[in-house]
Amino acid sequence: MKYHIIVFGCQMNDSDAERLAAVFDGLKFQKTENINKADIIAVVMCSVRQPAVDRVHWLAHSFTKVKKANPKLITILTGCILKKDKKKLSKGFDYVIDIKEIKKIPQILKINPYHISGDRLKCDKSDYLKIVPKYSLKFSANVPIMTGCNNFCAYCVVPYTREREFSRPAKEIISEIKNLIKNGYKKIWLLGQNVNSYKDPSTGSGQAINFPKLLKMVNDIHGNFELNFISSHPKDFSDELIKIMAGCKKLSKRLNLPIQSGDNEILKKMRRPYTVAQYKNLVKKIRKAIPNISLTTDVIVGFPGETKKQFGNTVKTFKEIGFDMAFINKYSQRTGTAAAKLKDDVTWQEKKRREKILIKLVNE
Questions:
Q1: β-strand pairing of 166-167 with 146-147
Q2: Does position 284 have pLDDT exceeding 80, yes or no?
Q3: Longest dimension (CA), the chain
Q4: pLDDT number for residue 124
Q5: Where are the beta strands (DSSP E) in 197-336?
Q6: CATH architecture of 137-252
Q7: What CATH number does the domain located at 254-364 have?
Q8: Per-residue pLDDT for 191 more than 80?
């Protein structure tokens, strides 16, 4: 049997795909880069952004045609999937599997070729994160330290697709990274929807290992490698973390710190619990402690109700902070989020116009 994996979304989805590949390898399946030669096609989905959802819908439609020529082809959908997307896409895939349940794929394929009851597949998050990945690169590795999110930002589906925050034991993380360094890896990425809120579940509250402490533990691992982490929430970016970062010699001098908007009213509507002034003050402290740091950010343009004046405040904030790069996203409505109840009143053309303005500003 040959398998082919298609991945959409962030580095966490890339990491999930590596665990999925490990499950297939455990079944003695062979990986193929040629989708036309695959007996199994697995798609790791991202429900966070509409373009990625649209592409999966297109794939589901195309698979129905492919299966007419190859009835034995098995198609699997997993990853970050909203319930409404899961329901719509179930007709286009043989299996729709929760990412936590990929460990049960051998059982699923054996039980029934076209349908499986989700109740029989319940797995703990820790089980899926214990799967040893089949790393896709030989020099850089993604290492999830936690998954899920408790923030419930108004525009985001992650708490609904990945559920509440769950941290891996520090012992597991350190062991995985030591093994990677031993095998010649030179770049390590610590991953999480909100790495700052990491807390080792295996230690008591009085001696809990938080993210700054974990960062120092990884930095102190013997070997020559570069350390990176993503993503951070400004509300959880502590003075302790800044101090630890400044002292970590292996830590990359690049930081992604999502601002999402440069207007206080929009930030409040987004349920981002900080002001522009607080964000600027945080950046000031980071740059003082780490003078040569390269700062990137995430921003959403065209959030419901965002006026031209409010967008102008984002432009002003960008000019004042001087980001080295920005990941600019045009707002798209996500069912189930708080923002979905608001009128999406900024036209797509206007969103594209605002996107171009920020792209030009960052490029300059």
A1: antiparallel
A2: yes
A3: 62
A4: 56
A5: 226-230, 254-256, 294-301, 325-330
A6: 2-Layer Sandwich (3.30)
A7: 3.30.750.200
A8: yes
